[in-house]
Amino acid sequence: MFEDLAAAQEAGRLGRQVTRAEAAELLDVRETDIRHLHRAGYLTPIRHVHSRWQRRREDPAVPLYRLGDLHALQDRDDIDWAAVRAAAGPGRRSPFAALPNAAQT
Fold first, then answer.
1. What is the pLDDT of residues 42-52, one digit of tens each?
2. What is the pLDDT of residues 28-44, one digit of tens each?
């Protein structure tokens, strides 16, 4: 029988699913940065859901990301988060834009 309540609560928290906007807010980056990370294969949605404006007969279009994956991404040493955040002004190009597509790596 599993009795570690703290471990179960932490697993539940890290398994929480967030939208692209919530992921961007958590990482303190723009939504376009999240799109670049997804395109480059650094971040993969765990599933897609329908938006409230989307027809139900259409495929779900809203990606959901796992909170634990975002924390792991945030801990990567090969990403200069300060540089990414410094480029967050309107019209400024994301450093992630230069990342190759996942299929090209």
1. 999 999 888 88
2. 999 999 999 999 999 99
Q: Which of 22, 29, 26, 21 shows the shortest CA–CA distance to 83?
A: 29
Q: Determine the longest span between alpha carbons in the chain, in angstroms.
A: 55
CA 47 to chain centre: 12
Token match 């723009």: residue? 30
Please check whether residue 47 is in contact with residue 64, taking contact to mean a CB–CB distance below 8 angstroms: yes
Structural Rg of the chain based on CA atoms: 16
Q: What distance in Å separates the CA atoms of residue 90 and residue 67, rounded to the nearest whole number? A: 27
Distance in angstroms between the alpha carbons of the first and the last residue of the chain: 43
The overall average pLDDT reported for the chain is 87
User: Which residues, at least 6 apart from 20, have a Cβ–Cβ distance to it below 8 Å?
Assistant: 31, 34, 35, 62, 63, 65
88 pLDDT tier (thresholds 50, 70, 90): confident
* Rounded Cα gap, residues 14 and 74, in angstroms: 13
